[in-house]
Amino acid sequence: MIEVQEIKLDPEERRAWRGDEEIVLSRKEFDLVHALMTQAGRIVSRDDLMREVWHTTFWTSSKTIDVHLGWVRRKLGDDSRQPHLITTIRGQGLRFETEDLRSRQS
């Protein structure tokens, strides 16, 4: 079981929860969250995500990650305008935050 903030991920059962509520993720959504959570606190490049989640070294579409990330953020309750779980580090990649960024903004 992987736990970061209020999100829990069971890689063996391929199940996810936000608190006590189970979240239904597609296969690619689960793989994306798993790739980010296993590297929580570190920036994961888009190239690494394409290799790990989509098993390709070329970009099928520049929006592939963004579209899936949008779906994941909605399901996890992460506001894309003020994210507290997954942040975009411009020009570098994505990071699953180890602590709630909203608590730093107070």
Bulk shape = globular
Q: What is the overall pLDDT average?
A: 91
Helical run tally: 3
Instruction: Provide the low-confidence segments as ranges.
Output: none
Largest sheet: number of strands, sense, barrel closure: 4 strands, antiparallel
**So what's the CATH class?**
Mainly Alpha
Q: Helicity, in percent?
A: 25-40%
Strand content: 15-25%
Give me the count of strands: 6
Question: Would you tell me the structural class of the helices and strands?
Answer: alpha+beta
The domain tally reads: 1
| Rg, nearest Å | 13 Å
* CATH architectural name: Orthogonal Bundle
For the termini, the CA-CA separation is 31 Å
DNA-binding region: 1-98
Organism: Nocardioides conyzicola
Protein name: OmpR/PhoB-type domain-containing protein
Keywords: DNA-binding, Phosphoprotein, Two-component regulatory system
Describe the 3D structure.
- It is a single chain.
- The protein has helices at 27-37, 46-54, 64-76, and strands at 2-4, 7-10, 15-18, 21-23, 86-89, 93-96.
- It is α+β, with helices and mostly antiparallel strands and 106 residues long.
- The protein has one domain (2-103): Orthogonal Bundle (Arc Repressor Mutant, subunit A).
- A hairpin with a 2-residue loop joins strand 1 and strand 2.
- Helix 1 (27-37) packs across helix 2 and helix 1 (27-37) packs across helix 3.
- The longest helix is centred in the middle third of the chain and has 13 residues, at 64-76.
- Residues 1-98 bind DNA.
- Residues 1-98 form the OmpR/PhoB-type domain.
